[in-house]
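The data are quoted verbatim for reference:
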Amino acid sequence: MNFNPLTWDAPYLVIVGALFMIVFLRANGTYWLGRLISRGAERTQARRMMETPGYQRAVQRLNQWGPPVVSVSFLTIGFQTLVNLAAGATRMPLTRYLPAVTIGCVMWAFVYGTVGTAGIEALGLVWERNPPLAVFLGVLAVSALVVFITWRVREAKRRRPDAAPAVETA
């Protein structure tokens, strides 16, 4: 039997179910980490993260909009972790958090189950026909992601109110 990690032999709903469980456990783990941190871990790396502008925005939106922010955060990249951490740190009641995180996890699982499966299948087809092209496309995708993240970090630093003004040279 030939194992190919680029092909999925599981039914679609099994893939979505597995993705749901993974993200549900991760999100709830982040929530409980937020609750633990808020209890007194004053000098940890996670506490410093909770003082970042991104985390503070997540807390503000969470306090303003509540559970819908938790659900919608699963359609974003990066923001969902901060929202779940903030939900725990601000002690959002489980009666509000669990339904919201469940809805978000279902959305996330279907999106990643669909897009992820299609992407893996497409990469598998390219690999079968032209392995160097598949490697090139993978490197191109990772490079584009690195450029995008670098650009976003630089933009965020530039927009920070506490950032020093740029020095002009003549």
User: Anything to note?
Assistant: The first helix runs from residue 12 to 38. Residues 1-6 have pLDDT under 50 and may be disordered. The radius of gyration is 20 Å.
